[in-house]
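Hello again, I could really use a second opinion on something today. I've been staring at a protein lately and its backbone has me curious. You're getting the sequence in one-letter code plus the fold written as tokens. I'd be grateful if you could look everything over and explain what you see. No rush at all, and the record is pasted right below:
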Amino acid sequence: MGLLTPTETGPLQQVTTLRLGIAGSESNVAIGLRRLGAPATWIGRVGGDELGDLVVRELRAEDVTVVAIRDTAPTGLMLKTRRTDAITTVRYYRAASAGSHLCPADVDEDTIRSAAVLHVTGITPALGDGPAAAVRKAVEIARAAGVTVSLDLNYRSALWDTAAASAALRELVKRSDVVFAGEHEAALVVDGSTPQHLAANLAQLGPRQAVLKRGPAGCVAVIDQAPYQQQALTVRAVDPVGAGDAFVAGYLAELLAGKPPAERLATAAATGAFAVTVPGDWEGLPRRDELDLLTATDPVIR
């Protein structure tokens, strides 16, 4: 989507300047992977408008391979405002947008079959029947080709109701190898009295790797039937949006690199922490040689 962000904090009607950029969970993950040295391809539908041009240009500038279908419908738009220093409000304008027209014919089968990981989110199937069918097709192609399927539940209450989301996400979890979720998202799919129980119950549906993102509380996971826990890094949060996508990018980059679970989670915690330290959904994502900066004792690097 295109992204509009006021350059000032306060009510939108008092803001004098808006910054234009791009945003989107899947594109955030793709950029995060590229910055960590992993290849990434983004498949999607954007409008044949200047916002669509911006999305394609920014992704290509980050060295992401782009498979973008251009649509006569407009590119979706996201408006992110800072009502106070502690409260961020996000609104989406994407009804009848190009992204909502995604369909199974848009799925590039050769790209998916040749991938190491297919990453999808719960946002796309919430956009409509076509996008939901496209996700199902992509997942089935990946499974048939032995490609690891990664799913971030990413529940958006503005897009669909709880009952519809619960049923659709549960089916996607069953067909995934790696699942990421917040606690409230996991609770849409499984029962569990603690984060560890939620992760374990997600894993029982089929995924070998179930990871619960808990923000400042770190994360818990069940990976190959073994429990894991990772503390979050202490940082000064400037913009919390995009932290979950950064976490996913860090985890998947280390999965692709063949790193053990503890290393995957440690890098995920670091990339998630990086993302919140600067404004923007993806701008603060780190490169691999920057991962140790958050634990540096000297604030000036010479």
User: Anything to note?
Assistant: The radius of gyration is 18 Å. DSSP finds nine helices and twelve strands in the chain. The chain has one domain: 25-76+95-286. Residues 25-76+95-286 form a domain with the UDP-N-acetylmuramoyl-L-alanine:D-glutamate ligase fold (CATH 3.40.1190.20).
